[in-house]
From TrEMBL:
Pathway: Pyrimidine metabolism; UMP biosynthesis via salvage pathway; UMP from uracil: step 1/1. This is Uracil phosphoribosyltransferase. GO terms for biological process: UMP salvage; uracil salvage. It comes from Rhodococcus erythropolis (Arthrobacter picolinophilus). GO terms for molecular function: GTP binding; uracil phosphoribosyltransferase activity.
Amino acid sequence: MVMQTHVVDHPLAAALLTTMRDARSENATFRSALRRLTHMLVYEAMRDAEVEEFPVDTPVAATTGIRLAKPPLLVPVLRAGLGMVEQASALIPSAGVGFVGMARDEETHQPVPYLESLPADLSGIPVFVLDPMLATGGSMVHTIDLLVARGATDVTAVCVVAAPAGVDALAASGHPVRLVIASIDDGLDENAFIVPGLGDAGDRQFGPR
Ligand code: PRP
């Protein structure tokens, strides 16, 4: 299945991604770059959002305004996605927020869910899943399984870096999903870390767990 993929190719995004890749960047520097890059990714992800017209009066005359027809639900995948949600919310103040917690088992590389806090009915609601990393794709596919089970039919994965295997896994899931991302990297190493990647985005924001 062909999946719509939008790589945000912009000098400002590339410079922020470089800060995140740089092993010398401290946690605070990494968090700041992630916040600022999230602004650009979400801005691009909203480009085709459905809008509706409504009458508005300027101080001078009546005109037609526009507003979002369906504000999305933002779903950060804990922990790493937490660093994206504040900026995404600031950009889309009418968006709701749900939470999914998932930690990848270091040996099997399989996602282990530990938190699910989502509205029961997601039919008709666009959902933006926020997670900086798409490595094997296991965590993202599992998250989208949860959303689709609640009726979601319009899901956007907003990520910073992916491995081609993760993009393929997402496409092969057959779910109604598109991907907005800053970079698709070379591949995965033997520990299923993205190469060159940026390390572990959770650890780099919050320290090791
Ligand atoms: C990382 C990352 C994704 C997942 C990607 O989280 O934030 O959620 O791994 O890997 P996958 O595509 O192979 O599933 P991690 O499990 O390290 O948890 P953390 O965010 O709490 O650090």
